[in-house]
Amino acid sequence: NAGVMQNPRHLVRRRGQEARLRCSPMKGHSHVYWYRQLPEEGLKFMVYLQKENIIDESGMPKERFSAEFPKEGPSILRIQQVVRGDSAAYFCASSPGSYNEQFFGPGTRLTVL
Amino acid sequence: GENVEQHPSTLSVQEGDSAVIKCTYSDSASNYFPWYKQELGKRPQLIIDIRSNVGEKKDQRIAVTLNKTAKHFSLHITETQPEDSAVYFCAAGYQKVTFGTGTKLQVIP
Questions:
Q1: Which sign does the torsion angle of CA A102, B72, A61, A111 carry?
Q2: Measured between beta carbons, which residues in chain B are less than 8 angstroms from residue A33?
Q3: In chain B, which residues touch A (CB < 8 A)?
Q4: Chain B residues with CB inside 8 Å of A41's CB?
Q5: Cis peptide bond prior to B8, omega within 30° of 0
Q6: What share of chain A is helix, strand, coil (3-state, %, to 5)?
Q7: pLDDT (tens digit, 0 to 9) for every residue of chain B, 109 residues total?
């Protein structure tokens, strides 16, 4: 059973470009969570999704950020018009239900030049 | 929303000694309390978790205690080894969890 997959592992963008981060949950998991981690800091919750639904996006900036988890395919975290402050590691996690252990992916390290 | 505080931010212990990390939370509705270990440059990995209907849980050298009345929970690592060196995060919540700010544990050989 493959674990949570994220790609790309490293992503470099120039200011103003778009960043698309993908997350494939573990088989059988229908709940996906996205977190942002700055160097030497903790994990900040961004958004919680189930298939085709956003359950909680209270941690997501109102502008430039969006997330989806379609019926088919991976979950996507999209950052439009990136700025240097968006540079961070973005982790997704999946679980079979909302009260279960979250399994983390390896993360995508975004660098904005 | 939930607010989780974690102390200390850094902790150095001699190999073989015990390490204790403490967390407090604010939302009395929280009923799930996981602990994650994150090594440098790697993903967080669950090491132990506890639910609100249990006061204590142990797994080999690791134990977690929960005091729902006081809204605090703690991680205890006994007989620490150099490979225990990492950053440890507590979390609390129900439908989603909120993470603490992390404790950097250094085990000195």
A1: negative
A2: 96
A3: 1, 31-32, 34, 36, 42-46, 49, 89, 94-102
A4: 101-102
A5: yes
A6: 5, 50, 50
A7: 889 999 999 999 999 999 999 999 999 999 999 999 999 989 999 999 999 888 999 999 999 999 999 999 999 999 999 999 999 999 999 878 999 999 999 999 9
